Amino acid sequence: MHIQLLGGFRLDCGPGPVHVVPGARRLLALLALRDSPVPRRVAAALLWPDTTERRAGACLRSSLWRLVKPETPLIVVTEDALVLGAEVDVDFRRACAFAAAPGASPEAVTMLKADLLPGWWQPWVEAERDWWHQARLRALEVLSDRFRVSGDRHHAYQAALAAVQTDPLRESAHRTLVELHLADGNPAQAVRQYQSYRTRLRAELGLEPSSHIHELVRPLLR
Prior knowledge:
Blueprint: E1 2-4, E2 10-13, E3 16-17, H1 22-33, E4 38-39, H2 40-47, H3 53-66, E5 75-77, E6 81-84, E7 89-90, H4 91-100, H5 106-112, H6 123-149, H7 153-166, H8 171-183, H9 187-205, H10 211-221
Parallel strand pairs: 1-7
Antiparallel strand pairs: 1-2, 2-3, 4-6, 5-6
Helix pairs in contact: 2-3, 4-6, 6-7, 6-8, 7-8, 8-9, 8-10, 9-10
């Protein structure tokens, strides 16, 4: 059994995806984001915040009842708490492991550049999304450096580009791309990368790039 949170929600049981009603989908996502059991009252309040405690509890019981029931349980239910079944694989948890200790593999880049539950507006999702945004940026830059040290400039470029796409105003990622273009003997592309960043930074924040990135291309600008 597999739950996908990166790039959108999906539940796979057996050979393919399984349809999940909205309430149960939110419940599975909440538990997939938590490593420890979630008290039933907390889960109900988070998932149905605009209703009474009694109504939220009823919605929680209904979602549990309507959830697909494979041989191995998706959710372990106790009197007071809920937790995701131990046999359920979650892509976000594996991505978090990559972020904590980035290994130089293309799979890591693919997972780290994916958004967490895009389009979901719930506060408990947005809090995790904010954390994921910063964690994956740091990890992508570490990965880019490791690929570059190992001589794999292609994947170093892919990791740095993913960081720029995640945060277009992050200067350290742009600087890495400029350095990679220069190392590849491509000064024109290095200048274009710098000028693209400079134009966006000016337009959105009214700022200039730092001297660190400017010094890389200053001889070329002359």
